[in-house]
Amino acid sequence: GAGVSQSPRYKVTKRGQDVALRCDPISGHVSLYWYRQALGQGPEFLTYFNYEAQQDKSGLPNDRFSAERPEGSISTLTIQRTEQRDSAMYRCASSPGTANYEQYFGPGTRLTVT
Amino acid sequence: AQKVTQAQTEISVVEKEDVTLDCVYETRDTTYYLFWYKQPPSGELVFLIRRNSFDEQNEISGRYSWNFQKSTSSFNFTITASQVVDSAVYFCALSEHQGGSEKLVFGKGTKLTVNP
C-alpha cells in the first residue's frame, strides 16, 4: 500500500518567508509525528498528533513553528518568518495506534533557507 | 531524561564480515520501547525492529539479529555476512510509555560501509 507522503520534497525559500510543509500519513494511521533531521544527526522530535488532537508539541523550537491536523489525516507544519537555522530535513511519520507502535517515515522535505 | 548513545560514528567492513552496531540507552521508566531504523544513501528511514522492555529475548531476522540486555541498558544490532547493500546509517531509538507522549529519541547514528 501507499506509504507516508510529503510535499514538497524540496523547498528553497528566502529568509523571512513563511513555509508550509505537508504530510499525508498512511491511510488509517491515527498517530502522526513531525521530526527534524540535521545533516549527520538523528531525527529530533517536534510534535505529535493523535487523530486531530495535538498531544505533544514540546519539541517545537519556538513560536514560529506550528502544526495542525484538522481532520485527523493530512497534517501541515508551518514555519513563519523563516531563518537560516531552520534549514534541515523535515520528516513526518505515522503509526497505526498509540502505545508506542513503530513509526513509518515519509521521504522528508528538504528545506533550505537562503 | 531519555538518551540514546551510539558510540560508533562510522564502521567499515569487507563484505561477508559480521558487524555489530552498539546502542546504549538511558531512561527512568520501567516500560519503554526500543527501535532500530536504517537510512540508506537514498535518504529514507526504514523501520527494522521494535522491542518492549519486558521482552529480553534476542531476535533474529535473516542476517539481522538483535541483543537486548536490560542489565547493561544495551540493544545491539548484528549483521551477519554483511553485504554491500547493508551500507547505510543505522539509528537506534527509544520511546517511553508515559504521559501520552509517543516521541522517539534517536541516537546520532552509525554509518556502516560494506566494501566489496
What can you tell me about this protein's structure?
- The complex is a heterodimer of chains A (114) and B (116).
- Chain A has 114 residues and is mainly β.
- In chain A, strands 2, 4, 5, 6, 9, 10 and 11 form a seven-stranded mixed sheet that branches.
- The relative contact order of chain A is 0.33.
- By secondary structure, chain B is mainly beta.
- Helix content of chain B is 0%, strand content 53%.
- In chain B, strands 2, 5, 6, 10, 11 and 12 form a six-stranded mixed sheet that branches.
- Chain B starts with a strand and ends with a strand.
- The mean pLDDT of chain B is 93.
- At the A-B interface, β4, β5, β9 and β10 of A face β5, β6, β10 and β11 of B.
Radius of gyration of chain B: 14 Å
Number of strands of chain B: 12
Give the fraction of residues assigned to helices of chain B: under 10%
- Write down the overall geometry of chain B: globular
Assign a percent range to the helix content of chain A: under 10%
Number of helices of chain B: 0
In total, how many beta strands of chain A? 11
Mean pLDDT across the residues of chain A is: 94
Q: What multimeric state do the chains show?
A: heterodimer
How does the overall form of chain A come out from the CA principal axes? globular
What fraction of residues of chain A sit in β-strands?
over 45%
Distance from first to last alpha carbon of chain B? 41 Å
Structural class of chain A: mainly beta
**Which structural category do the helix and sheet elements of chain B fall into?**
mainly beta
Number of helices of chain A: 0
Question: What's the rounded overall pLDDT mean of chain B?
Answer: 93
Helix/strand order of chain A: EEEEEEEEEEE
Order of helical and strand elements of chain B: EEEEEEEEEEEE
Distance between the termini of chain A: 37 Å
Low-confidence stretches of chain A: none
Largest sheet of chain A: 7 strands, mixed
